[in-house]
Amino acid sequence: MLKNQYSYPNSLFRYSQTKILTAILLSLITSSSYANSVSLNYSQLEQQISLQDENILLKPAGAGVNVSFDLTSELSLKFDYQTWQDDQQASNLSTVDIDLSTIGGSLSYLKDNWFFSASISASEDDITYLIERRDTPYRAEETQTTSLGLNIGYGGLIDHWMYDFSVGVQYTDWEIDSMQLDPQALPPRPNDPNPLLTNTSKTDENTTNISTNAAIARYWQLTGDNGVLAGAMFSWNHQLSGDNDLASGNNPPPPPRTNTPTRTSRVGGNAPTRATSGDDSYGQVLLYVSYDLNSAWSIDLDTAIEVASDNNNQSWAAGLSYSF
What we know:
The protein is mainly beta. The chain contains three helices and 14 strands.
């Protein structure tokens, strides 16, 4: 199959990255004496795929994990891993299959009401086009990105209300591999070892984005350790440099989900915003609610929609967190 012979399977990407991440996490868990937390989530995204004569909306979904460590009273470290999958049938009797994964981490520093963070993430977006009833790929695209980000913000607490404002910059390196077969030359059997490869291309590019974020939330104390936190966040992203057409046609997975570095608000930064949405400027609105079951366990739900982008994609996520 084309995906196995001519692309780099992301199973190797996931295995190597997960193995390194697991070793780091085990070391931190055994050595940390401050507060730690582990979150499991299930989320769904939207991604538009442009074919020759139609556009297809895919909604990849999958599970992820977020681990956070307070190394000191001012310094915290976070790691994230997430995958999504989906497939849809097009009108020309072909099937589009999408497989996304992302891994990364961030280091945050809190001083009074100010917070600073640096992050790194790596993602892979595999799209395979299959001919119906043959199960034979005739086209495959693989997008790998590596992103570096810096963020600075200010947050505070007024009675039961929490707020924060932040600005950030993100640099993303893109590597895109595309493979194309002549549909007329496809073998009649899917196990044919020699499909005719007619076109290949490789693209290396980079983009730089800046973002501004404003978040507000309120906490309601119920009984004992029970409580509800609800809030909203608005962010605006602008692409400073890079090829807008490149970003528009090859959306990468979003970077890992990392909560706001401040201790006062959990709303900012929860949105699964993309490294770029395919527009040079676009916004995103996030709504968020969290319920503390007790002092250790909590559940949360958030939903987000893009504003002023080409497709105004939506996403949602549900999670369960344990603090120790």
